[in-house]
Amino acid sequence: MSTIELLGRQIEVDSDGNLKNLNDWNEDIASEIASLEGIEQLTDRHWLVINFMRKEFIEKGDGPTVRRLTKESGIDTKELYALFPKGPAKKAARIGGIPKPKGCI
To answer: Which CATH number fits domain 2-96: 1.10.1060.10, 1.25.40.10, 2.40.10.10, 1.10.10.370?
Structure first.
């Protein structure tokens, strides 16, 4: 089992590098993960996507795909890729402390 150190804590991650335990997540952890992903500051628009991802995961057991994100979160595709470059659903899921959505490669 792999772990990463975030904010002085050892936290378990899965084979994709996402948090194993949803309860290890908080906004400070999210900001730290975002920084590791090359996103220096999370804006209100980032949080809109992250919170949508978490809500969907908690309600449905899987994070939404990019297609669902753009249809249901209020963020269009162009902005989504600007906010989370190179794999927005995968990156937003990692920052949101949930597993990679099943529809992601």
So the answer is: 1.10.10.370
52-69 tens-digit pLDDT: 999 999 999 999 988 888
Cα 15 from Cα 105, distance rounded (Å): 13
Active-site entry in 4, 29, 48, 104: 104
Known active-site residue 16: no
pTM as predicted: 0.92
